[in-house]
Amino acid sequence: GESVGLHLPTLSVQEGDNSIINCAYSNSASDYFIWYKQESGKGPQFIIDIRSNMDKRQGQRVTVLLNKTVKHLSLQIAATQPGDSAVYFCAENAGNMLTFGGGTRLMVKP
Amino acid sequence: EAGVVQSPRYKIIEKKQPVAFWCNPISGHNTLYWYLQNLGQGPELLIRYENEEAVDDSQLPKDRFSAERLKGVDSTLKIQPAELGDSAVYLCASSRGGGSEQFFGPGTRLTVL
Predict the structure, then answer these.
(1) What is the spatial distance between Cα B37 and Cα B11, in angstroms, rounded to a whole number?
(2) Which residues partner with B73 through β-bridges?
(3) CA B16, CA B23: separation in Å to the nearest integer?
């Protein structure tokens, strides 16, 4: 069936380095993609989104790239900080329904 | 602005017992969602409300799960009877409308013994 998934379950980076979290999706009908950050004991928190008619969107320290040809989504975090440690989920929206991937844990080493 | 409020934050019950979770969405948000999140996995939609109407409940196990949003604001999710496999985090989210950004509450962590 259609699914959203992540390549790496855990990513460990040095503080100050850039982080890249990847996600593959399979539902070509999805028109909107979102990255969420979830810290322990909290609900998912919106980070950044991108519509399917775009291939790049930048926020504060974060950039989302969308490659519709290979159905790939990535989240880039610049100058990763300890506060970025969390689980990151990509999600796709189709027909007002959000489908989440399995999550990647980002660990930031001091 | 207050966020989505959920209670209780934690609940431990024995199997076959009933349990209920409560959610108060962000003021003015017409759309309310209940999600189930298993450990290490992304949230999975159980039910979506537009005001007081359940518009998508296809993933809700209706033999034991029920939900209501009587006045189109607060919502309650109930499980009766609970099973061991129901142990998970139950998340509530709200948005201004379907397709708008969803804001999540902290969730209720349910442990069924």
Answers:
(1) 15
(2) none
(3) 23
Residue A87 has φ and ψ, to the nearest 5°, of -100, 135
Q: Average of pLDDT values for A42-70?
A: 95
Q: What is the pLDDT of residues B39-56, one digit of tens each?
A: 888 999 999 999 999 998
**Residue A9 class from Cβ within 10 Å (0-12 exposed, 13-18 middle, 19+ buried)?**
exposed
Contacts of B105 in chain A (CB under 8 A): 43
The DSSP output letter for B57 is -
Nearest to A96 among B99, B105, B107 (CB): B99
> What confidence tens digit (pLDDT) does each residue in B80-110 have?
999 999 999 999 999 998 778 899 999 999 9
Residue carrying the six token digits 């969602």: B33
